[in-house]
Design goal:
- The chain is of the alpha/beta class and 396 residues long.
- 33% of the residues lie in helices and 25% in strands.
- The chain folds into 2 domains: 172 residues, 3-Layer(aba) Sandwich (Rossmann fold), CATH 3.40.50.1950; 207 residues, 3-Layer(aba) Sandwich (Rossmann fold), CATH 3.40.50.10300.
- An 8-stranded mixed beta sheet has the order 14-13-10-15-18-19-21-22, with helices on both faces. It has a 5-stranded parallel beta sheet with strand order 2-1-5-6-7, sandwiched between helices.
- The longest helix is centred in the first third of the chain and has 13 residues.
- It starts with 5 loop residues before the first strand and ends with a helix.
- The structure holds cytidine-5'-triphosphate.
């Protein structure tokens, strides 16, 4: 997503500057082109040499050095996005009034790209009315201001004012400036995670589903421009992309009712949830107490959500299901594809090394109703999501 993107990093004098080293490392790992500009004070907090080596570009501090003039206008125009992290109270105040007494400020005044700032300061400074006024001025000027978090501060106090973490900054710029438009205008509905069917107020029937696959698909489609809603049961993951709509449910019935409401509005539906096939006939109001004898639970069938979607699906909608199998994998998956009237089924075999619950990798085969069978190798779930999304793109 960031490969070849031009990211300009501005660093000001704040202890949080040490985190910017990691930010640069992560950006380089994602194959972005990184250039760095520092305020003169910032070099007391982080070494320009380290920054230059990591970015593979000389970190710039002075507007002019040894009769050489740094072209701040071109630097500002070079960037696809300019991230100032950390943003100190002092530079913030200068930005709010347009003071231009160093290279970083000259660059920001010349920049034509989106600007993102990650403030970092002590809580008292952060909450000071002057700082808040300056932050609001920047926001009004169209600057994207990242939220500060609460925690341990350089002063030793606990409070608000910590700089956003490098991973958050990267997710923010990807979400706001680098989504592509392959699925623009498409509405996607995804079920993810496992459902819990209550036995009594403290017990339930559940499964090992982590929701990783469903969320990886949600993120991939969202980053390719789709409008994504996830109906999430119990999951061990979340997403940092604020634009993905998440609706949390507990039981298969709750998931079913939301799908009934939402399905007609979507262009693509992906049923990745591990829905409990059965639920207890009754849920005890009070905790079931241990007795002398064995306990027999009567279970009744839950509604099949994928089959429901297949039964009401319009021709222009694309419906994808999953099949988790331990034996006769392809035959069982094909059977599900037909009986549930999906357009395609992603087969996961628990027998395959690298595939299964909670793992970060998966090995899939996709079967399409036109007879196509596509087998893929073991990959991280994010790469599997890319394969599935690329498969779907052939049909929508
Ligand atoms: N599914 C569903 N609602 C259910 C059960 C399953 O929507 N009540 C969906 C799953 O989300 C998945 C597909 O159906 O997309 C297949 O799920 P799977 O658990 O593999 O199969 P089942 O139909 O439950 O059959 P079995 O457990 O016998 O393999």
């Amino acid at each position: 997503m960031l490969k070849g993107k031009k990211i300009l990093i501005g660093i000001t004098g704040s202890i949080a500057a040490y985190k910017t080293i990691l930010l640069i490392r992560l950006l380089k790992k994602l194959e972005a082109d990184v250039k760095i500009v520092l305020t003169p004070t910032a070099k007391d907090f982080v070494s320009p040499l380290v920054l230059s080596v990591l970015a593979n570009n000389k970190a710039i501090i002075e507007l002019a050095e040894n009769d050489d003039w740094e072209n701040h206008v071109m630097l500002g125009r070079w960037a696809d996005v300019f991230i100032i992290a950390p943003l100190s109270c002092n530079t913030l105040a200068k930005m709010a009034v347009g003071i231009c007494d160093n290279m970083l400020l000259a660059t920001w005044l010349s920049a034509t790209c989106p600007i993102v700032v990650a403030p970092a300061m002590d809580e008292d400074m952060w909450k000071h009315p002057t700082t808040q006024r300056n932050i609001n001025t920047l926001k009004k000027d169209g600057v994207n201001v990242l939220t500060v978090s609460k925690g341990e501060l350089a002063s030793g106090l606990i409070g608000e004012g910590r700089m956003a973490e490098p991973e958050e900054i990267i997710d923010y710029i990807i979400e706001h400036f680098f989504r592509t438009n392959e699925f623009a205008g498409k509405k996607v509905l995804i079920t993810a995670g496992g459902t819990h069917e209550p036995i009594d107020p403290v017990r339930f029937i559940g499964n090992h589903s982590s929701g990783k696959m469903g969320f990886a698909l949600a993120e991939e489609l969202y980053l390719q421009g789709a409008e994504v809603t996830v109906i999430a049961g119990f999951v061990q993951v979340t997403t940092s992309y604020k634009g993905i709509r998440i609706m949390n449910v507990h039981t298969a019935d709750e998931m079913y009712h939301i799908v009934v409401k939402e399905f007609s509005k979507c262009d693509i539906a992906i049923m990745a949830a591990a829905v409990a096939d059965y639920k207890p006939l009754t849920t005890a109001k009070e905790k079931i107490k241990k007795k002398e004898k064995d306990l027999v639970l009567q279970l009744i069938k839950n509604k099949d959500i994928l089959a429901y979607a297949g039964s009401v699906k319009k021709k222009k909608q694309f419906l994808l299901g999953f099949a988790l199998e331990t034996n006769n994998e392809q035959e069982n998956a094909l059977n599900k594809l037909k009986t549930k009237k999906a357009d395609a089924i992603v087969l996961n075999s628990l027998k395959q090394k690298g595939a299964g619950f909670g793992l970060d990798t998966n090995k899939i085969t996709i079967l399409h109703k036109d007879g196509t069978v596509k087998k893929y190798s073991v990959k991280p779930k994010s790469a599997v999501a890319k394969d599935i999304v690329s498969f779907i793109s052939n049909f929508v």
